[in-house]
Amino acid sequence: MTMNYHRITSIEDPHFAALHSLLGRIFPPEEVLAYERWKEPLEDPGIHVYVAVDGEEVVGSTEYRYYPELRVAMTDFTIIGDHSRGIGRFLMRNRENDLRRLAEQSGTEPIGMFAEIYDPYSSDEQHSFGGVTPMNPFVRREVLSHMGYKRLAVEYVHPSWDHEGQAVEGLNLSFLPADEDRTHIPAELVTRFLEGYYSALPNKPQAWLDMMDRLRGMEQIELLPI
After folding, report:
1. Adjacent-strand bridge partners of 25
2. What is the model's pLDDT at position 114?
3. 99 and 128 Cβ atoms separated by less than 8 Å
4. What is the pTM of this model?
5. pLDDT in tens, 56-76
6. In a domain, 205, yes or no
7. Is residue 10, in this structure, part of any structural domain at all?
8. Among the four 43, 86, 90, 160, which has the fewest Cβ within 10 Å?
9. CB neighbours of 141 closer than 8 A, spacing ≥ 6?
């Protein structure tokens, strides 16, 4: 059976409930937007949420956006899904093709893609989420490293997506440069991206505000191996 790359643009989509259930199985609660809060993001033409549908079953998903004014993309979640379905390459190739289309439509040449990547080595936390084995944070981190992602040399936190205003730690802000030899990116690019990306969250923790102040005092940020 041919797998379908299907975009979800409404919580009324018949595949959305299955997607939200999948997110809840893989990510911790503070990383998952409540069901009803997905209404506006899904209707935003700049946010691209796709599912891999095998028959009538949702077996994987990816979410991303492209910022033509910054010439960067952001993958909200890179590839999630079940094992032994072959969805990894399917989602990655379809996402690449779509991002290429978005860049061409805007007349821009992308310089790379941001991602927040869990760092399970940074603490003794067990990271019990990721109930689907291939989605385990250790596995995902290694796969994203193989893809070419590099971590920014900054202490990173972000506001929780549950709108409680908590600082979420234990992640690296990472970047997949289009130029594999790139060793730094402008700090201004990072601050502009983060200000826009988290503009939808009204409650910002002090730790995030402090981090943003530190970034504004920098010129370049080094890209390090994951």
Report:
1. none
2. 97
3. no
4. 0.88
5. 899 999 999 999 999 999 998
6. yes
7. no
8. 43
9. 117, 118, 119, 120, 226
State the first-to-last Cα distance of the chain, in angstroms, to the nearest integer. Answer: 37
Residues 6 or more apart from 133 whose CB is under 8 A from it?
83, 139
Which residue range forms the structural domain that includes residue 127?
67-224
Please give the tally of structural domains in the chain. 1
Among 225, 153, 143, 144, residue whose Cα is nearest residue 185: 153
The pLDDT tens digits of the residues spanning 81-98 come to: 877 777 888 999 999 999
Is residue 178 in a domain? yes
Is residue 48 a part of any domain in this protein? Answer: no
